[in-house]
Design goal:
single chain; alpha+beta
């Protein structure tokens, strides 16, 4: 497993993300990132740069003005990515 550092501007939120984050939840993610930093990598579909795991964290990092994050790329096709 290889984790790489990637500019946040390259990551694409998943518009079909099953998990939605309300304002309070996003504030908690922001607080956690401020206190502890990024403790887990995003899981991102190679080729599309679509975030499969970590969409709330992506939104929170952008709110904080972060510019880079740790990413683990997977080679899932579109069908596998939604499972």
């Amino acid at each position: 497993m290889q984790i790489v550092r990637v500019p946040l501007k390259e990551l694409v939120p998943d518009d079909r993300n099953a998990r939605t984050h309300n304002k309070r939840n996003l504030q908690e993610i922001v607080r956690s990132l401020e206190a502890f930093g990024q403790h887990r990598a995003f899981v991102v579909q190679r080729g599309t740069n679509k975030v499969l795991i970590g969409n709330g964290m992506l939104e929170a990092m952008r709110q904080l003005g972060w510019t880079e994050a740790d990413v683990f790329y997977v080679d899932d096709d579109d069908e596998m990515a939604v499972r």
